[in-house]
């Protein structure tokens, strides 16, 4: 998959690591969260801020995930690409009357984990605290959301770390493939711009730009919150107003158009490396498509199922052409695509592309077998709790995702039935719909191999 955001802090952890937080639930805690038995409550604060809550008093911990929908890198101003990404590294670098080092020290002293991230579409925050220091921790969160300082030193330091990463990636095949992928598949769209910005655009982003971005994109109407832990609905309601109550009612977001991914293109990037990186793009399905799970299961059989998928079996197991090969579905707010990726020795690139094309044709014409579909359903159903409900923050993230995608508070309970309802004919039709198109093919490797 092409990278849409870069780790922006190579010189220090992006989130504070505190053992007491118990990121992975104990066996006892896991037993409390089977996929069909997560008890979700909708909480509305006295001030009208909504959140989804799973109460859990197994450990004295509170985990919160929150997202400002539409406030991702698509909101960067032209010429100032990288603003959202830069800001994501600065909201815990001093806030209110607390400067950067003191703010970091307080987080560490209280055992608080706080981090932010900017994706293409959204701006998200992750927060964890032990209940003993909950009041102080939530106050630090309030300051970081509402009163970030954007002082010169941390702005220059974090900008420098991002810039160093950009320079380091100038000859990285994966990064070059991602850049070519974005520029080809999302041509002339905000999704084509690098989330981390460029050396030139980063140099123009100053504290006033960061403040303007935050003031314009952080609001109550695009805020979604998920909370898990030892906190009651009444207590959470008070904290929601404390942390987010002073935000403006409405975000001032720039319109972002929808786009269909460009297919049928071939782009070759010459790079003197032993391997050739290969990426392909085909149409995908939006998350609200009624046939989403038909596409999800089809992709699992094709390449999303890792070691059990057709692409892995044909390219790795049968021929040993690559360490791995796979496919993935991406459903953004304004586009959907199915991507394919692998990397092979340069002299085997054409063979690998041919095999992928053959598998796409076979799947489009025949679809999966009944056995493949049954195994895909079993895996996709059984792995959900492990992938989405295995820690307090993972559950909180799932709660936010349910809201962002408007899936309904009962989605976790309904998910298995939605998957079980998919028929072999549904999957075959989805395979024809998505895979009968000529893919865009991106290669990065030596010329003439």
Automatic annotation (TrEMBL):
<keyword id="KW-0732">Signal</keyword>
<dbReference type="InterPro" id="IPR011765">
    <property type="entry name" value="Pept_M16_N"/>
</dbReference>
<dbReference type="GO" id="GO:0046872">
    <property type="term" value="F:metal ion binding"/>
</dbReference>
<feature type="signal peptide">
    <location>
        <begin position="1"/>
        <end position="31"/>
    </location>
</feature>
<protein>
    <submittedName>
        <fullName>Insulinase family protein</fullName>
    </submittedName>
</protein>
<dbReference type="InterPro" id="IPR007863">
    <property type="entry name" value="Peptidase_M16_C"/>
</dbReference>
<dbReference type="InterPro" id="IPR050361">
    <property type="entry name" value="MPP/UQCRC_Complex"/>
</dbReference>
<dbReference type="Pfam" id="PF05193">
    <property type="entry name" value="Peptidase_M16_C"/>
</dbReference>
<feature type="domain" description="Peptidase M16 C-terminal">
    <location>
        <begin position="207"/>
        <end position="378"/>
    </location>
</feature>
<dbReference type="Pfam" id="PF00675">
    <property type="entry name" value="Peptidase_M16"/>
</dbReference>
<feature type="domain" description="Peptidase M16 N-terminal">
    <location>
        <begin position="70"/>
        <end position="197"/>
    </location>
</feature>
<dbReference type="InterPro" id="IPR011249">
    <property type="entry name" value="Metalloenz_LuxS/M16"/>
</dbReference>
